[in-house]
Every structure is written in structure tokens, then in C-alpha cells.
Amino acid sequence: MALKSTIYKAELQIADMDRHYYADHSLTIALHPSETNERMMVRVAAFALFAQERLEFCKGLSDIDEPDLWAKDLTGAVDTWIDVGQPDERRIAKASSRANEVIVIAYGGKTSDIWWQGVRNKVERLRNVTVWSLGENVAPALAALAERTMRLQCTVQDHAAWLGSETADAVPIEWTVLKAAADARPAAHGGR
């Protein structure tokens, strides 16, 4: 018998002063049996950092044809595709051909550096792809925020972001932009 996903609920308040995006979101997040709290919370942080009207969680690990998050336009075409982790260059290229904008958020410190060196040459030619690498301690700190029912607040100001909860201090979300999309809309967040 296959293991089932664990369901997490989050009330997420976003105050993104860089993009002038202020909203409350009620999120239902399925934690895949092979997924860690670290990865799940990086997905939540990605939602908070790139929130828009139609952004939603996808099947992710359960379906290789879907990203972790996406936003589709009114016709059903994929506008924004967001993958978390270290996808191979074939997956990134496929996403690039299916979506207007592709965002990859890598985490894992040194393993992210090794991954990037392996895919960099092929990914850099994809004009609509942006790649971020989270700071080494960000994912473990985000994992500490995980609870089955969460009330989270994300603040973004002056190209810096924090995600916190009622029960824990805010985690600074630090990142390095490894590759910026050449033809995407101007980035709302900078990082280092």
C-alpha cells in the first residue's frame, strides 16, 4: 500500500513592499512521503516570495510533469513555473519551453554549488530561466517553522525577506542569484 501525503495548513500573510503585493493566503500543503520539512518549507517560502493571483501548489514530487508551484493564465497556459531543489537540465529545458517564466530555487549549500556547476552551461542559454541558491542555513531554519497548522508572516523590503510564525522568530531568507532571466519581467528581489 502506498504511503499518503501528510496535509499541512497555513495562513500566510504577505507584505511585499518591493512589489506592492499585500495579501492573505490560506494554503493547503501536501507533504509527499519522501519529502522533508525542509523542502516543504522552501516551497512555502517560494510561494511567499513569488506570490501572485493564480499561483498554486502542484503535485510536484507526485507528478514529474508538474512543478512545485505554477501560475496559469486564463487560457490554461503556464505563465510561471517554479521548481524547488536541484532539477536536471532536461527538466529545466522542458519547463522553459512550456512556461513564460521558469524559476528554480536550489538549496543545500555545497550540494547546490556542485549541482549548479553540472547544469550551468546548458541552463544559461535558456532566456526565460532564473536560478536562485538559498543561503546554506535558510532551509534548516525554515524547517523549524513547520507545524501541521501554521500562521506565517512574510515581509519583503529592500530586496530582503523574512518568514516567521506566531511561535518562532522570523527567518531571514538569503539567496544568491545564479542566473537571471534575460527576457523576464524585472526581478522584484535581489539577494546577493
UniProtKB/TrEMBL annotation:
<dbReference type="InterPro" id="IPR038590">
    <property type="entry name" value="YaeQ_sf"/>
</dbReference>
<dbReference type="InterPro" id="IPR009822">
    <property type="entry name" value="YaeQ"/>
</dbReference>
<dbReference type="Pfam" id="PF07152">
    <property type="entry name" value="YaeQ"/>
</dbReference>
<dbReference type="InterPro" id="IPR011335">
    <property type="entry name" value="Restrct_endonuc-II-like"/>
</dbReference>
<protein>
    <recommendedName>
        <fullName>YaeQ family protein</fullName>
    </recommendedName>
</protein>
